[in-house]
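This section describes the prediction task in plain terms. A model, or a person checking by hand, is given the sequence of a single protein chain and must write out its three-dimensional structure as a string of tokens. No templates, partner chains or ligands are provided. The sample shown here is typical of the held-out split.
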Amino acid sequence: MAEALAKSPPADVRWDLARTDHPDAPTEETAAALLHLVVRDPDPETVGRSLAGAAVELALASYPGFHVLAPPGKAAPYGVFEAAYVDQGAVDQVAVLHDGRRVPVPPAHDTAVLDDVPEPPLPEPLPPGPTTRAPLGLIAGARSGDKGGNANVGVWVRTDDAWRWLARELTADRFQQLIPECRQLKLTRHPLPNLRALNFVVDGILGDGVASQARFDPQAKALGEWLRSRHLDIPEILL
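The expected answer:
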């Protein structure tokens, strides 16, 4: 396959092998693994049917049981979403009232420069005590989603004691240990003590964004649940 790509190498090539196969599987689907190939290039011919055909022909000639989920086809365009500032005067702002009237809202003449907000102090730690290795989701909720190529992950707990533990345990370093895909990426943690919550922003984990569809979970909707499924040493008084 590398030789086939060398003739006209795409600008970007990514292989992912998802080991969904299980030993002595009772169904054909659970006996199979999924090999995902994503190629991108400004020239659709470089990543179109010729590339897909080469991949399929080589695999069919080499791997018993190989099959594809869809027939080889033409390249498909995708968009790239990037966050950027837009002058407030470039967007018409309108207030729609309950009676259907639309009232134009002129841009503000004076705006304040946002200052850096100091990070709130950490709560007092819980006293030492026995712990149990268990999923984070037993005591914490989470929601996640995409912002262009970045992902937001919010994590919260219900009690003050759980917050005392979460705020000190789920650091940026711990988050990167639990979610290895973001270990080489910029990660920002925002504590929200009044909500007993933490918000994490992972820069670049979604590549060029949801439209590129290069990731198993392109909108990061399941990223929070993956985090909740990871095991930590949780104090037994919280369980």
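For orientation: The two ends are 51 Å apart (CA to CA).
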